[in-house]
Each structure stands twice: as structure tokens, then as C-alpha cells.
Design brief:
The complex is a heterodimer. Chain A is about 0% helix and about 45% strand. Chain A is mostly beta strands. In chain A, the strands form 2 sheets. In chain A, strands 2, 4, 5, 8, 9 and 10 form a 6-stranded mixed sheet that branches. A 4-stranded antiparallel sheet of chain A has the order 1-3-7-6, with no helix packed on it. Chain A is globular, with a radius of gyration of 14 Å. Chain B is mainly beta. In chain B, about 0% of the residues lie in helices and about 45% in strands. Chain B starts with a strand and ends with a strand. Classes of the chains: A mainly beta, B mainly beta. The interface between A and B is medium-sized, with 31 and 25 residues.
């Protein structure tokens, strides 16, 4: 079946502009995650959504970052007033999140490469 | 606080040599540990998890709670093992997952 998809695959923007990154999770997956992948920094947790629960936003680096998930499916990560240090690959992942005992496997999208000039 | 440390950014070994990618963690509760791998031009994917206690592509990893480690090992490295490896941690049954900085494994012919 279809995996996690993300759009756009590449985004080049000017400093100070707002950007929106989109994630389509695997159908039926109730948990959705956003990560930032920077050179030398590994994967940085940003936010996750689980069903109708309040999202865990503890990883968002500043109030310029926000994310929403509409209808329990598609998610959008918004970065306002982009800065050059926001340049990175933004990864989305989803998981079934059914057991409650064990953490479910996360399935990753291809990422969006954001370049802020 | 949750923390995952991968001390080696780059590990280079010859084909057929043993390989060990180190991972140490810090977590006050009951942890779940994972290894994810990203091959060139492919998506990040799960390699193995400690609760499965299985060998995937010849790799194994044992959770050592005393040493708070979850090192990834393979007795005989292959060229196709060249990739970026990430160690990850979450609370048992939890969702928030913390990844290490990653180790790039390069297997030379």
C-alpha cells in the first residue's frame, strides 16, 4: 500500500517568508510525528499527534513553528518568518499506535528539504 | 530527561570485519530502544527493536540496563550495510521518540 507522503519534496524560500509543509500519513495510522534532520544534529523531535489527544509540542524550537492535523489525517507544519537556521530536511512519520504497551513502529516519509536563503 | 548518545559520527570498517555501533541512553522509566537505518536515497526505516530480540540482516542489539546501552553489532560487515544508523528511545508504550545524532557506517571493499 501507499506509504507516508510529503510535499513539497524541496522548498526554497527567502528569509522572513512563511512556509507550509504537508504530510499524508498511512491510512489508518492514528499517530503522526514531525522531525527535523540537520547535518550533525541527527533527528530532532518536533511534535506528535495521537488520535484526538492534545499534541505533544514539546520539541518545537520556537513559537514560529506550529503544526495542525485536520480530521485525524493530513498534517501541516508551518514555519513563520523563516530563518536560515531553519534550513533542514523535515521528516514526517506515522504509526498505528494501537497496543498501548509497546511503542509502535514509525513509518517515515521521504522528507521535505527546506532551504532558507 | 530522555537522551540518546551515539559517540561515533563515522565508523569505517573493511568488508568481513565485525562492526559495533554504540548507543547509550538516559531515561528514568522503562525504555524501549530501537535502531533505525537510512540507506542512500531511501527512507528512514526500522531495523530492529529490543523487545523483538531478533536478528535483522545479521544485526543484533542487546539492551543492557545496567550500562544503559543498546549497541548494534554484526559479526561480518557487508558493503550493503553502508548507511546512516540512528538509535532511538521512547518510554514503553509511549509516543515521544528521541533519536541520537546518528552514526554513518562505511564498509570498504
Amino acid at each position: 500500500g501507499a506509504g507516508v507522503s510529503q510535499s513539497p519534496s524541496n522548498k526554497v524560500t527567502e528569509k522572513g517568508k512563511d512556509v507550509e509543509l504537508r504530510c499524508d500519513p498511512i491510512s489508518g495510522h492514528t499517530a503522526l510525528y514531525w522531525y527535523r534532520q540537520s547535518l550533525g544534529q541527527g533527528l530532532e523531535f518536533l511534535i506528535y499527534f495521537q488520535g484526538n489527544s492534545a499534541p505533544d509540542k514539546s520539541g518545537l524550537p520556537s513559537d514560529r513553528f506550529s503544526a495542525e492535523r485536520t480530521g485525524g489525517s493530513v498534517s501541516t507544519l508551518t514555519i513563520q518568518r523563516t530563518q536560515q537556521e531553519d534550513s533542514a530536511v523535515y521528516l514526517c512519520a506515522s504509526s498505528l499506535a494501537t497496543s498501548g504497551i509497546y511503542t509502535d513502529t514509525q513509518y517515515f516519509g521521504p522528507g521535505t528539504r527546506l532551504t532558507v536563503l | 530527561a530522555q537522551r540518546v548518545t551515539q559517540p561515533e559520527k563515522l565508523l569505517s570498517v573493511f568488508k568481513g570485519a565485525p562492526v559495533e555501533l554504540k548507543c547509550n541512553y538516559s531515561y528514568s522509566g522503562s525504555p524501549e530502544l530501537f535502531w533505525y537505518v537510512q540507506y542512500s536515497r531511501q527512507r528512514l526505516q526500522l531495523l530492529l527493536r529490543h523487545i523483538s530480540r531478533e536478528s535483522i540482516k545479521g544485526f543484533t542489539a542487546d539492551l543492557n540496563k545496567g550500562e544503559t546501552s543498546f549497541h548494534l553489532k554484526k559479526p561480518f560487515a557487508q558493503e550493503e550495510d553502508s548507511a546512516m544508523y540512528y538509535c532511538a528511545l521512547s518510554g514503553a508504550g509511549g509516543f515521544k521518540t528521541i533519536f541520537g545524532a546518528g552514526t554513518r557506517l562505511f564498509v570498504k571493499a
